[in-house]
Amino acid sequence: MPSEQELQISPLVPESIQHNSKTLYNLQSLTASLFGISAGILGLESYSGFLFYIVFSLLTVFLLYVVRVAPASSSVALSKGGASKPLDTSSYFRTPFEFWAGGLMNGLAGFILTWTLFYGLVRA
Amino acid sequence: MTWISKTITVLGGILLAHACYSAQEHSSLQSFRAAAASLTSSSTLTATTLPVDIAIETIVATFIIVLGLVSGTRPLRPIQWRVWAGKLEREGAEGFVDNEGEVNKDYVGNPFKNLEMRPGFVDVRRQRREFAEWVKGGGEK
């Protein structure tokens, strides 16, 4: 987290932060229910189901990084004349944690809902 | 661009629905077999794990849907003020379009517009000259 002085020197745009986190939140709540459907079809139980959720959520975030974050970050870094750090999300999100792991808890309820629903539907 | 992501998502949805139906049929077949085996009590119960092709289809379908959804997300916006304002200055409204190619509803334009439109910045003489030319030209646009 940057200090107050750094925020004064290079201010942030609140609307953009809101827009980005809303985009991420929408994607994660949608995909979490989808992963619940898959886990129910596969018949996963207990820890393996949660492991499935975590692995696929991280995969989703990584895909979002590849599609949306990486092209712009590398072009900004190239225009400054330096190579971009790998997995750098600082131009779109305040902290790396917010991007990579912030949404894991968002979709967990939806995941469990559809997981139990489809587990029951398939193994009636 | 949006129809590509929608097509990918629908394709994955069809695959996932097929996998779900296959898994359901498989489990009902297994329970039918178990009932038949208990009637005849001849054969031992077989393992009721999901066939590997259904599992592969499920995972591939999930991956395809995720791919479609991720490619359908709205473009992110830079959060640093200097990057954002620079993009605004360079690209204008074209830098802030969504997937359908329409400008975002909350597009505000130049963030310093109210500074540049201050009364002290207005060139009164030039406006008067323009008005005089407009009057001389017969008042047409």
From TrEMBL, chain A:
It is found in: Endoplasmic reticulum membrane. GO terms for cellular component: EMC complex. It comes from the Eukaryota. Its main location: endoplasmic reticulum. InterPro entries: Emc6, EMC6-like. It is a multi-pass membrane protein. The chain crosses the membrane at residues 24-43, 50-70, 99-122. One of its GO terms (biological process) is protein folding in endoplasmic reticulum. Keywords: Endoplasmic reticulum, Membrane, Transmembrane, Transmembrane helix. Belongs to the EMC6 family. This is ER membrane protein complex subunit 6. It comes from Immersiella caudata.
TrEMBL record, chain B:
GO terms for cellular component: EMC complex. It is found in: Endomembrane system. It comes from the Eukaryota. The chain crosses the membrane at residues 54-72. InterPro entries: EMC_subunit, MMgT. GO terms for biological process: protein folding in endoplasmic reticulum. Its main location: membrane. The keyword Transferase does not apply. Coiled coil: none annotated. Keywords: Membrane, Transmembrane, Transmembrane helix. It is a multi-pass membrane protein. Belongs to the membrane magnesium transporter (TC 1.A.67) family. This is Magnesium transporter. It comes from Immersiella caudata.
